[in-house]
Fold this sequence. Notes:
With 632 residues, this protein is mainly beta. The chain has two helices and 47 strands. The strands form ten sheets. Strands 2, 3, 4, 6, 11, 14, 15 and 17 form an eight-stranded antiparallel beta sheet that branches. It is globular and about 85 Å long.
Amino acid sequence: MVKLSVAIPLRWVLSIGWTLGASLAVGQPTPPPGIPLPLNDLSAFVSTTPNWQVVSGVRADLNKPNTLTIDKGTGVLVNMPLPANQASKLAGKQTNAVTTMQFGDVDLELDYLLPAKSNSGIYLQGRYEIQLFDSWDVRSPRTADNGSIYERWDDKRPDGQQGYDGHPARQNASRAPGLWQHLKISFQAPRFSTSVAGGVPQKTQNARMVRVELNGVVIHEDVELTGPTRGSLFSDEKPTGPLMLQGDHGAVAFRNIRYINYDKPRPELMNLKYAVYKGKYEKEPEYSRTAPESEGTIDVLSANVSRIPNEFLIRYTGTLRVAEPGEYRFNLGAPGGGGMLKVNNQAVVASGTNMGKVTLAKGDFPFEMFYSKFVDWEKPNLGLAIAGPGIREYLVTDATSGANDEVDPIIIDAPTNTILRSFMDMPGEKNAQGRTLRVVHAISVGSPEQVHYTYDLDKGALVQVWRGAFLDATPMWHDRGDGSSRPMGMVQRMGAPALFLTKLASPQANWVTDTTGSGYRPKGYVLDEADRPTFRYMSYGSSVDDKIRVLANGQGIQREVTITSPASDLYARLATGTTISAAENGMYLVDGQQYLRIDDAAGGKPTIRQGSTGKQELIVPVKGKVVYSVLF
């Protein structure tokens, strides 16, 4: 891996030619996959104690540790600490929530919310814990921090070594307490032999966390679990088990719990044969008119059966045995040319594409595939993956014929205040052509506090803030590059960039989304003694200084915008979101994902209003200065 571990000083600002790169169109969002765990009542759980209840919503105050405020209704599962007199009656009882649902291999997805200083956990099969913890101000996660795989425990080990085999999260991707966080887990259960020794099946393979994402950031990949973690429901290991939500440590809320069980037998490829044809084939040939260069039988699909380095075609035939009826999805990678796949004599993956699906009954079906290689600078490679009902996607090609050599990532760290100028794509936002919006004059500023942001020089807009690692510049610098970089941490996006300041005839007038008529002119930026930029621009004839600084505790950023001789009827738009509501201590809650605190708004009272795009907006009149903080 190529890693730039030394920061790029701000005084050595990097710039690139502002040539537009290609953008891929993004389809409409699809519902989360999986089966929802019903939260209309507590019937999804074996039994629960009074600390667990179903409500419609929860709120937390940053200044009140381990405390939640709840609303009556359904849809949210909440654990509330009991008063001391009630808790004492439950001494020795199981106060965790354990599902009736049992699973082996599973994909689990859910939202959770923790108040300040709270502690909980999610136990896969009731045995293997992903820690939930208020780790808002943590820079280097430990095994007890949010998203980490908790340690195992053995009292017989020496003092200080009883805890072992814990796995800290790769980086802190946590949100602030009181904000909803999103967790995705792909879990593989331990494997056991069919034979038994002493009446007990023998474990042949440890459980694994295949992949864990916290708030969109991968924090674990392919982590082996040698046994149950501390505080588990069971001391042994089994092929299946329930989901357990920890309720004996602190307040926590869960919603949108969905799961996919992978408990069905995989299809089998049988009686595989191959035939290699020499030549440049850009479409499937008539095999009866062409003699193969070589042919034979194979145990697994492979591109290595051809000794010809380029301009060849391999035809594979055999039988696909299906034990579980349903819809099957196929993903074919055929670099350096192309491929085609047929099942039951019908095209599933057409030539020139790489994905397809087909509905199959239980039984044996004819299987046919070809791989044509004619691009000389590509290595011969072949990858075919299958997924189906209750079957996690898996490869049916050999290990040496997967994707081409991976690109070593080019990572930009920020051990000091650091700046990088690049294109920045905005997932979820569209341009006029329906493609992913690209900010073409973006400046990303990184900090040693591991809180970073991106600024749009075209509009004087704060584009996004994030916590964790700084930037992946691989797409910018690898090969010819496309000029873009990507945040590596937990990102809080601010919506499509628009003018921060605009004139409004009334508080209900439409917000101006571009610079037309505003006299907007960027004036660059100046650096302070710590190499932190203050951006400058002209707007409506006024000079504007826009200073963004990381809060001392690393819990967010503060923005101070100063306007010299401000125009009349000038407003600042501080936030946009689907829902914006007033919260405790004079703060505002935006989409349950960020807090906004107004530190100085001498111009007048903030207003929450419905914007022209259908989203809510938080605006405030400006007389000369506005200061606010974003906590996330």
